[in-house]
């Protein structure tokens, strides 16, 4: 993996050089992880003029969690507690003879920025912007493999839950059980707080589980995700509890299912992000549910659960191959509940079979 991290750092260095900076400081944790592998909490990465350094506040753990570090990358641990790796890295950059340092201003606080200026007053600080996030959008096959394994784990956890007795159990209890099952099957942990909504809570994006108990005839919506070696995916499904679904439940489910299928089918290299959103949103708009729809119908996933690209009405840009995204349209009717269907897919060209579906739990409307 060392050559992979080195290649990523080389691409970033080329961007920095093109912008007039010979050195860069990466402080956002997911970006450090992308460029240096598993790193201690709070570590920063210095792309120096003469040498790259991983700067830590203390000695690195011999057993890093959630992945492997880049063992070829020199590590510089601060001598005492309370030091700031970002401030120390600015000093190292100056020592290496750098005249300017590109920093992630969207992540650094004003206080840290001022401290960096004070420790290296001759160093010109510039803004690196979203350069690393832009590099992270397109995934390599090893990254996609981690997402694929995470999706398999999430599918397993959800499948086992569906085989258990659900009536009378609380949303909170079901969410905790799902998160335990994720870990049992090999996940680092949940990719985000698991959402379980029943009855009037179903179909709400980001619903936080409550002590409401599952009742006969409820819609049950579940959204969960697994983290595997730092990479995060998600899946969302909606079911009916106990009895045959009512007519309104069938109609609403069929509508959301159709919208989600349209969004999935629109995924292709070169497709505009807003067009994918429009494909998933159009049927729901036409059916009169525009005011009940979320602000976006999908987003990128990877080292974070909500990455670029965004699939939204005002989104800019187009999709590339090997970009993993979610497609997750949903409708929530206040006081009644709703439906949400969520998959993680990888954008692939038609010659390679089109979008690759990572989350494969059935989307049939099951009565549990």
From TrEMBL:
Name this protein carries in UniProt: Aminopeptidase P family protein
Region (Disordered): 57-77, 187-211
Keywords, ordered alphabetically: Aminopeptidase, Hydrolase, Protease
The organism's taxonomic lineage, starting at the top: Bacteria, Bacillati, Actinomycetota, Actinomycetes, Kitasatosporales
E.C. numbers: 3.4.11.9
Domain Peptidase M24: 146-348
Biased composition (Basic and acidic residues): 60-73
KW Cell cycle (keyword) present: no
Enzyme class: hydrolase
Pfam families membership: Creatinase_N (PF01321), Peptidase_M24 (PF00557)
Domain Creatinase N-terminal: 8-138
GO MF annotation list: aminopeptidase activity
Record bears the keyword NADP: no
């Amino acid at each position: 993996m060392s050559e992979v991290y080195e290649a990523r750092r080389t691409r970033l260095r080329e961007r920095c050089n093109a912008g007039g900076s010979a050195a860069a400081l990466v402080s956002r944790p997911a970006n450090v992880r992308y460029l240096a592998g598993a790193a201690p909490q709070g570590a920063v990465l210095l792309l120096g003029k003469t040498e790259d350094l991983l700067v830590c506040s203390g000695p690195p753990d011999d057993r890093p969690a959630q992945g492997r570090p880049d063992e070829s990358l020199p590590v510089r641990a601060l001598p005492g507690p309370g030091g700031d790796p970002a401030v120390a890295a600015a000093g190292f950059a100056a020592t290496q003879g750098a005249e300017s340092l590109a920093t992630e201003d969207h992540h650094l606080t004003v206080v840290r920025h001022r401290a960096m200026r004070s420790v290296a007053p001759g160093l010109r600080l510039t803004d690196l912007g979203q350069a690393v996030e832009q590099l992270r959008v397109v995934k390599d096959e090893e990254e996609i493999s981690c997402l694929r394994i995470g999706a398999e784990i999430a599918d397993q956890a959800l499948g086992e839950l569906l085989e258990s007795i659900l009536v009378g159990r609380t949303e909170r209890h079901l969410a905790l059980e799902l998160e335990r099952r994720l870990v049992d099957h090999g996940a680092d942990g949940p990719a985000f707080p698991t959402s379980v909504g029943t009855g009037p809570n179903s179909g709400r994006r980001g619903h936080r589980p409550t002590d409401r108990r599952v009742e006969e005839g409820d819609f049950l919506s579940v959204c969960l995700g697994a983290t595997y070696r730092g990479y995060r995916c998600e899946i969302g499904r909606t079911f009916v509890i106990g009895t045959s679904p009512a007519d309104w439940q069938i109609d609403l489910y069929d509508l959301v299912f159709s919208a989600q299928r349209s969004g999935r089918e629109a995924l292709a290299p070169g497709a505009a992000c807003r067009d994918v959103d429009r494909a998933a949103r159009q049927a729901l708009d036409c059916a009169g549910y525009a005011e009940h729809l979320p602000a976006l119908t999908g987003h990128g996933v990877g080292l974070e659960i909500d990455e670029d690209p965004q699939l939204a009405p005002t989104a800019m840009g187009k999709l590339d191959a090997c970009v993993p995204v979610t497609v997750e349209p949903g409708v929530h009717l206040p006081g009644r509940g709703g439906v949400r269907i969520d998959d993680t897919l990888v954008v692939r060209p038609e010659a390679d079979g089109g979008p690759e579906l990572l989350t494969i739990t059935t989307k049939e409307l099951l009565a549990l």
